Amino acid sequence: MYFTNQSTIQLFNQLTRPYTIALVGNPNSGKSSLFNSLTGLNQKVGNFAGVTVDKKTGISHISETLKANIIDLPGTYSLYPKSADEQVTYEVLLNQKNADRPDLIIVIADASNLKRNLLFCSQIIDLKIPVIISLTMMDIARQKGITIDTAALERQMGVQVVAINPRKDKGITQLKKTIHNIQLVKPAPIPDFIDIPTLTGSWLKEVKELCGLDSNYAALHVACNYQELRYINAAQRISIAALLGEGSFQKSKVQAEEIMQRYKRIDTVMQQCAVTDSPMKKMVISERIDKILLHPGWGNLILLIVLFLLFQSIFWLARYPMDWIEQGFAGLGNWLSGMMPQGLIKDLMINGVLAGISGIAIFVPQIMILFGMITILEDSGYMARISFLTDRIMRSAGLNGRSVMPLISGMACAVPAIMAARTIQNKKERLITIMVTPLMSCSARLPVYTMLIALVIPNKSLLGVFNLQGLVLMGLYLLGFFMALVVSKVMNYIITTKDRTFFLMELPVYRAPRWKNVGITMIEKGKIFIRDVGKIIIIIALVLWGLAAFGPPAHMKAVEDKYATLLLQHPENKIEIERAHATAKLENSFAGMMGHGIEPMIRPLGYDWKIGIALITSFAAREVFVGTMATLYSVGDNEAGKETLREKMRDARREDGTPVYTLAAGLSLLIFYVFAMQCMSTLAIVKRETRSWKYPIIQFIYMFGIAYLCSLVVYQVFK
User: Fold this and answer.
1) How many Cβ atoms from other residues are within 10 Å of residue 2's Cβ?
2) Are 444 and 622 in contact (CB under 8 A)?
3) CATH architecture for the domain at 16-184
4) In whole angstroms, what is the distance from residue 652 CA to residue 452 CA?
5) Which of 372, 469, 492, 553 is in Cβ range 3.0-4.6 Å of 522 for a Cys bridge?
6) pLDDT in tens, 77-102
């Protein structure tokens, strides 16, 4: 089939693409909850064309005959974008050629703050795309003494209005029925919410026709932003500039008059549709709670307690499933060792594959618990309060409270956390946030932390309540956060700018966590950890097994001859000789040569050559450290499965007979992994977000320098 012109191609795309619904609304209006309710688990995350902003889409079965593609657009307060995320919403809704442009827009409006939300609603309505207003937070509005007449609101706004509570799936059936009806019979365009031509003049109609636009309001935005809009070509820009010059167009004046007209009309709408019980707004429960949780003294104390309980629970709740997994893999190793004949295949399966899998599986419970706790904090509304509480300390480091969300997200993973920095409007603050976010201890560090803490920190309680290992873990996370503040302060002096920013944030109401959502998140994050990280670890474990099992033929032959002779001479010492033989083979293997090659550089930190190998391999991903140690301490072990990895590492000795993992060496290694940039994925995302290799290179160098110096000091102090 051949197409003769561009309009035919566009018509074909409209007929063949699925029915598309966009969800738009102010932040914290309930948009994400509605998206989850409509799509369930039929979701995927990609990127919008030409930008790195996340594109969250899903499939929803609206009715028996209608299956729709749902797009969750980034939250915004108006159609005047100030951040990269808001720019995406602007582009999708204004560009008529955009592949993601919706057939229907659902505007989610917070009923408890209806006046402010109606500003955005009115702007969307004036784009002349079919609209449904979904009112959320009706229960909060009632608590405030506000009653909303939805039928009157429909008449005043000229579009369908549906009250919903997506957290409890209330109103979703009615919403789907409304969507189905609009798809069957497309509603006639309604008049402009305000008289837009009076704001401009005769040139508005000419701009509208010149660009082939559907609405007066879209033409107004083209006039305001034609130099920046990518879908306006050079010829159109020249013509628009001429038209605006003739009409003496003043952008700021027109935009100010537009907003004033909209609020004047919205005041009339509110008088007709909303009734407040008394002039004094009722204090809802959330505001009462905030008097305590946002108090300068009590609020910060409670925050520390919340963090303390989070890290205590990671050890306490995960202790039993971790022990079961460890014992299960030890038993499986024993069973395979007894079933399989001696040889290379047995060594590969037990000391390569099984050791690599067990190295990641044991930490899945802790990863799931960490993500579950973070989801509870976000779902309950407390995470936003953390941003508010920490704004003062962030400002002292040259940032503001908006940087807190990426930093806290960095506790899960630095990659999406760095992407979340797009919401920061100030370029300097965004760059500094990107540069320091990897200092936050992510979930990839958790397996390393817990393994080393279990090795060198006694499992005992302080004052009969506080678990010492949990306190150390919390200390490592706080150490990363405070180092991020120090580095931010330094970078704030180095990077100069005249821009000033103000931190304005709407606090969501407190709500009970959706336990189903928490459970789904924990399961999904566990799967992702096993699937994505597991593949890397297993591949590296197999490669490492090969490097550890083989070496230069001459070296390996000399080792074989030496220990064969010793075994003939001293058969009574067979067990000791076989263990010494296995150690010598590993030292003379390719992996051993790598470790010995960097040993002079890491010896001042208290590390041996095996740790050196793990430092090299874990550059791909920090958690590979565990799999590497599992492989290194299993290769050549003829009694695989008899001891757990922690027991093998605890028994490890240097040539002089002293333990490898002393308190000093363990603390030094912990500090190294707190600060070092051991993640290729993070460097890649920093390059993508900054569009330069300069910043990831600087990031790697400064983080490695801090890690090395601090580890050196810690080892020298505690040894």
Assistant:
1) 4
2) yes
3) 3-Layer(aba) Sandwich (3.40)
4) 13
5) 372
6) 788 777 667 778 888 888 888 888 89
Contacts of 633 (CB under 8 A, 6+ apart): 610, 645, 648, 649, 652
Reading phi first (left if > 0) and then psi (alpha if -120 to 50, else beta), residue 57 is in: beta
- Number of C-beta neighbours around residue 168 at 10 A: 12
**Banded model confidence at residue 107, pLDDT cuts 50, 70, 90:** very high
The 3 state secondary structure assigned to 324-348 is: HHHHHHHHHHHHHHHHCCCCHHHHH
Find all residues with CB under 8 Å of 433, minimum gap 6, and list them.
Answer: 399, 403, 406, 407, 421, 424, 488
Give the three-class secondary structure for 375.
helix
Q: Residue 523 corresponds to which amino acid? A: I
Average per-residue pLDDT in the chain? 78
User: Looking at the predicted structure, is the pLDDT value of residue 127 above 80?
Assistant: yes
- Residue 49: per-residue pLDDT: 46
d(CA 112, CA 667): 51
Side chain identity at residue 349, one-letter code: M
Residue 606, helix vs strand vs coil: coil
Q: Residue 2 — pLDDT band, cuts 50, 70, 90?
A: very low
Q: Round to whole Å and give the CA distance between 517 and 200.
A: 48
Domain assignments of the chain as residue spans, ordered by start: 16-184, 197-276, 298-494, 527-718
Nearest one of 200, 208, 197, 255 to 232, comparing CA atoms = 208
Give residue 526's pLDDT: 74
The residues with which 288 forms a beta bridge, in sequence order, are none
8 A C-beta contact, residue 25 and residue 107: yes
Q: Average of pLDDT values for 158-176? A: 89
pLDDT at 10 (0 to 100): 45
CA atoms within 13 A on the CB side of 3: 9
Q: Is the CB of residue 143 less than 8 Å from the CB of residue 136?
A: no
Nearest C-alpha neighbor of 374 from the set 492, 517, 243, 240: 517
pLDDT computed for residue 499 by the predictor: 57
Q: Give the span between the Cα atoms of 686 and 184, in whole angstroms.
A: 46
Pairing of strands 67-72, 19-25: parallel
> Cβ(112)–Cβ(507) under 8 Å?
no
Closest by CA position to 220, among listed 188, 189, 194, 191: 194
